[in-house]
Amino acid sequence: MQEPKPIELALPRVRESLRSEVVWGSRVVAVGGGAPVVVQSMTNTDTEQAVETALQVKELALAGSEMVRITVNTPEAAKAVPYIREQLDRMGIDVPLIGDFHFNGHRLLTEFPDCAQALSKYRINPGNVGKGDKHDRQFGQMIEAAVRWNKAIRIGVNWGSLDQELLASMMDENSRRAVPWDAKPVMYEALIASAIGSAKLAESMGMPARQIALSCKVSGVRDLIAVYRELGRRCNYPLHLGLTEAGMGTKGTVASSTALGVLLQEGIGDTIRVSLTPAPGESRTQEVVIASEILQSLGLRTFVPSVTACPGCGRTTSTTFQELTQQIDDFLRAQMPVWRVRYPGVEHLKVAVMGCIVNGPGESKHADIGISLPGTGEAPAAPVFIDGEKRMTLRGENIATDFQKVVEDYIAQRFTAAPSAAISA
Ligand code: SF4
Question: Which residue numbers delimit the IspG TIM-barrel domain (predicted)?
Fold first, then answer.
């Protein structure tokens, strides 16, 4: 009889790419070339308001954003950029800043050299750097600034602002085919041609290939998958991945996670951004949390301790179980800016919060530390498992606070404190 083979692990594929480096001071963020996938985000403050923008950048960086993009749309915004950088440096936040340029980037980067130097990377949208003979000249001015100040760039194509001349010429070409293609594949080709063509043009102007990242953002999940699969096949530039205009809340989260999950599993994507529209009053950091969770759930990165929780069912009729899960999750996240420095490796911790005896003890034993709460009709006692062994039983009103303390003690004991931790929360 033939020996059964073990089931293959679902490991993500690997796409070979160049390695781009985005630098500020001694902070080097590697993108591509086998580096871990980088989380980035973008502010939604008015860049002219330097203090407000610096504070939001800080908030995003502390939430885990490893690069932060800010819009640079006016001379006043360009003037504010060096002040934003200065404020961040004073606060000890060395996250690299990316300038987002459209329409007038060639002028801003030329006329405001302090802005050009304070940024670590420029995002250039080839669809709106000018039309006709102005296009190459203005594009060239931005490349000149990147070369001069030794900055990385992203050629960021977006189908909402695709180069209309290029699209029109590709549509014409298509109409001359014996059997013309549908409009969608022509659009896909135009997006990819705009990105790769602009990267080649930048190289011909002196930009090192290894400092160029590409993106081709669209808002449909299947469109994004189709475009990036092909883009990934046709070039070896590192790829910035994101679903543009993903939307709000659940819709935006699910659409981004679905699209990015499929592509990342195929090895496509070296840095990601989740373009979520925040609900009024909602923190901008939510997009960073989601991007980090996508990478963590695929096993590509580990940012925060994971909390395994059952969904609850008819056996969990009180709200204690939901409250404890929420409380532990919030507590672990809130501590991370400090713990990340104080307890190296703490992000690998696995906590389980389970609703009853059915799967509670089993799942808790698989975690580093787990609690199995009493379901409806069970004795009001919650066994706690540490490293697979039942160590204690919590009872009474304060189970949540007591469990939080048990988790804290476990972390302090297991993860050796770094000697002189420079903590900037
Ligand atoms: S562990 Fe218990 S409470 Fe949780 S889903 Fe399973 S049966 Fe329901």
Answer: 29-290
Q: What is the C-alpha separation between 367 and 361, in angstroms, rounded?
A: 10
Is 115 marked as binding a ligand?
no
Q: Which residues line ligand 1 (CB under 6 A)?
A: 310-313, 315-316, 354-356, 358-360, 375
Q: Is 235 annotated as a binding residue?
A: no
Q: Are residues 319 and 391 in the same domain?
A: yes
Q: How far is the CA of 357 from the centre of ligand 1 (A)?
A: 7
Q: 7 lies in a domain?
A: no
Q: Which amino acid, one-letter code, is at 411?
A: I
Q: Where are the alpha helices (DSSP H) in 5-66?
A: 50-63
pLDDT per residue as tens digits for the range 239-258: 999 999 888 889 999 999 99
Q: Which atom of ligand 1 is nearest to the CA of 310?
A: 4
Residue to substitute in 308, 317, 356 for testing ligand 1 pocket (most ligand atoms within 8 angstroms of CB)? 356
Any domain includes 263: yes
Which one of 269, 298, 327 terminates a domain?
A: 298
276 assigned to some structural domain:
yes
- Residue 337 pLDDT level (bands cut at 50, 70, 90): confident
User: Is 419 part of any domain?
Assistant: no
Q: Do 349 and 394 fall within a single domain? A: yes
pTM of the entire predicted model: 0.93
Q: Do residue 178 and residue 316 come from a single domain? A: no
Please report the atom of ligand 1 found closest to the CA of residue 314: 8
Question: Which CATH number covers residue 339?
Answer: 3.30.413.10
Residues 27 and 78 in one domain: yes
Determine the Cα–Cα distance for residues 191 and 215; give it in Å rounded to an integer: 9
pLDDT tens for each residue of 361-380: 999 999 999 999 888 887 78
Q: Are strands 369-372 and 381-386 parallel, antiparallel or unpaired?
A: antiparallel
Cα of 313 vs centre of ligand 1, distance in Å, is 6
pLDDT digits (tens, 9 = 90+) for 167-226: 999 999 999 999 999 999 999 999 999 999 999 999 999 999 999 999 999 999 999 999
The residue segments making up the domain with residue 391 are 306-413
Which of 354, 373, 376 has most ligand 1 atoms within 8 Å of its beta carbon, as the pocket-test mutant?
A: 354
- Helix intervals (H) in 127-211: 132-148, 164-175, 183-204
294 touches 265 (CB < 8 A): no
Atom of ligand 1 nearest to the CA of 321: 3
Question: 140 is written with which tokens?
Answer: 């060239």
Report how far Cα 338 is from the mean position of its chain's Cα atoms: 21
Final residue belonging to a domain, choices 298, 328, 353: 298
